[in-house]
Every structure is written in C-alpha cells, then in structure tokens.
Write a structure and sequence with these properties.
Layout (H helix, E strand, L loop, with lengths): L1 E8 L10 H19 L4 E5 H10 L4 H19 L3 E6 L7 E2 L4 E2 L13 H19 L5 E4 L11 H6 L4 E2 L7 E4 L2 E4 L9 E3 L12 E3 L4 E4 L1 H13 L1 H4 L13 H7 L2 E4 L10 H10 L4 E6 L6 H14 L4 E3 L1 H4 L1
Parallel strand pairs: 1-2, 1-14, 1-15, 2-3, 3-6, 6-7, 7-11
Antiparallel strand pairs: 4-5, 8-9, 10-11, 12-13
Helix pairs in contact: 1-3, 1-10, 2-3
Bound molecules: zinc ion (ZN).
Zinc ion (ZN) binds next to loops.
C-alpha cells in the first residue's frame, strides 16, 4: 500500500498568524528529521500565496525579509531531503497585508477561489503556480485547495488542464462543512482511494484528465474530541501545538464534533495521530492501494511527533511511503 504523508505548509489565518519560526521552521525541521531517519519521503503543500505576499512587502519590513529567506531556504531543504513540494492555494493572501506588527487577514468573501471573479481567479492560479514552480525549479502537478474548498471544480477545470495540474488531493470522502468562509461537500465523493474525474471532484469519470488521491477519512467519536480538548488542558507540554497562532474560526464545528460522530481527516496532527495506526490497519483490511494522511507543521505537538516516529518505525517495512512526484 502506498502511504502519502502530506503537510500543508502554512501559517494560521485567524486573529494571529503565529511566527514563522514556530509555525513552519521548527516543526518542519522535526518532520524532515523523521523523513531522513526513516528514508521516508513526504509531500509539502506549500501555501504559495504567503510567499507572494511576503515578496510584495519585504522591502518595507526587514522582519519579512528574514521570514522570506527562512521559508525559501527550508523549501530547498525539503527538496534536498527527497521530499515533494506541491501547490496549495489560499487566495485570501491577495487581500491581506502586513501592518508592521502582524498580518491583517481578510478572509471574508476571499477565502476560496470560488469567491473571486473568473478573471481574477485565473490570474491568481497562474501566478501562484508559476511562482512555486520557479522556486523549486520544476513544474508542480498536484493541487490541494486551501480549506479543502475546491468546489465547484468546473470553474477550475480548463485552466488546471492547460497548466497540467493533473492530480488533486483535496477531497476527503463523506466530509462536508458549510459555515463561515468554508464550503465543501464530499458526501457524494466515491469512497475509493484513487479515481479519475473531469468537471466534478465528486463524480468519477474514467476518461477524465484528473486523478483524485483522496485524503483518508475516518469517523471520529465525540469521545475522541472530548479527550482531545481535555488532554490539551491537562498536559500542555505534550499536547500543545508547536505553532503559536490562532485558527480561523469554524462556526459551530466544536459543538458539532463534541456531540456527534463526524467524518474527518486521517491526520498526523496533534491527537489525531493516535488514530494513524488504526486507520492504516483498516486500509490494509480493505486492500487499499493508497492512503493519504494530511498534517500541518503548525499543528504538530510533542505527542504527535512521538507517535509519527513510532508509526514510521512500525510501518516502514509494511507500507511503501511515497509522494506525488515519485508516483507520476
Ligand atoms: Zn491550507
């Protein structure tokens, strides 16, 4: 079974972005240490809008120049470590500016590609992709939508095909969330670990140009989330995120997960890492060809990094760890 360990390389988008050192550099270094230790390739979906926003203002603020240099150096380090770098788009960076102290995020009606007019959307995608391609010195071909908001895909279909963005990993089957700036609905997505599609990410089309590698999904119990929230308070040294920012709000989400079973990602983040082995065993039983985990450097905890270490020691010989560049 192919296992893809994927990480969205980004800051927080709430009232505090957090620092580059804590949200990106430090936790990513820990992940790269694991990648090298076990010779396991990882995929980093780089939030390229952030880098473009840094470039816009780095001549005005020396701290942004330092942040920029650290991020660009680390992306080169990912490549040297044998990891994959692919395209992650958060278009709200278009409306966001640095005020000398912090990033002032504007996410209202600007969080999703679908929030923009067609012409503007096309400009963003072209510029973001070509910028990331030039940083890494090769063409990206795999996409993950910011906040998983890839719908409606028919708005992206033609341009993605032209730019040869042929793989996507934004869908997690059975997931849906419609609140605040979020909007995605994968309840009708095929429950397969790989499928082709054309104009709708949730409709399989054997002749489609695109291939979906869905993020693994798992049905989490309310108890899981009670534990998650309580452990963070009881043992912050183990369970506090390394990232020092604040998440963008997900209205109603906390109440929903504490009271209902919910489908959510197979993830390496924080307490979610406790389910990685179980999710992997289920995938073996179902004879899956692929299993995609999603994580974020910013959401790594001491606990999750320890578990990831144990996971890699256990499954390194039983799974084929891979990334999209190797797989193409
Ligand atoms: Zn993201």
């Amino acid at each position: 079974m192919n296992v893809f360990l994927t990480f969205d390389y980004e800051l927080f988008f709430g009232s505090a972005s957090g620092t580059v050192q804590k949200c990106l550099i430090e936790p990513t270094n820990r992940l790269l240490d694991l990648s090298r230790k076990y010779h396991v390739p990882m995929t980093f979906f780089v939030d390229i809008g952030y880098i473009i926003a840094l470039e816009r203002q780095l001549n005005d603020f020396s701290i942004l120049k330092m942040d920029y240099d650290m991020v660009i150096d680390q992306i080169q380090e990912m490549i040297v470590a044998g990891c994959d770098v692919q395209l992650h788009i958060h278009p709200h960076w278009e409306k966001t500016h640095f005020d000398g102290e912090k990033w002032q995020f504007v996410t209202k009606n600007a969080y999703k590609l679908a929030d923009f007019e067609a012409e503007e959307r096309e400009r963003i995608i072209r510029i973001y992709k070509s910028k990331l391609d030039s940083i890494i010195g090769r063409k990206t071909h795999t996409f993950r939508a910011g906040g998983w908001c890839i719908q409606p895909f028919n708005q992206l279909e033609k341009l993605f095909q032209e730019l040869e963005i042929k793989y996507d990993s934004s869908v997690f089957p059975r997931g849906h969330f419609e609140a605040g700036e979020y909007s995605f609905d994968f309840r009708n997505a095929p429950t397969k670990d790989q499928y082709r599609f054309q104009n709708d990410v949730c409709t399989e089309n054997e002749n489609g140009f695109f291939t979906e590698f869905p993020i693994g999904s798992y049905r989490y119990s309310p108890l899981f989330y009670w534990r998650l929230y309580i452990l963070g308070r009881l043992n912050p040294a183990a369970h506090k995120m390394i990232g020092d920012g604040i998440f963008m709000s997900q209205p109603g989400r906390k109440k929903q997960v504490l009271t209902h079973f919910t489908w959510n990602h197979a993830s390496t983040d924080g307490y979610y890492a406790s389910k990685m082995a179980k999710i992997t065993e289920i995938a073996f039983k179902k004879r899956q060809q692929n299993l995609v985990f999603i994580g974020h450097p910013k959401s790594c905890t001491q606990y999750s990094l320890n578990l990831l270490n144990r996971y890699l020691a256990k499954y390194n010989s039983r799974c084929k760890f891979t990334h999209f560049q190797l797989n193409s």
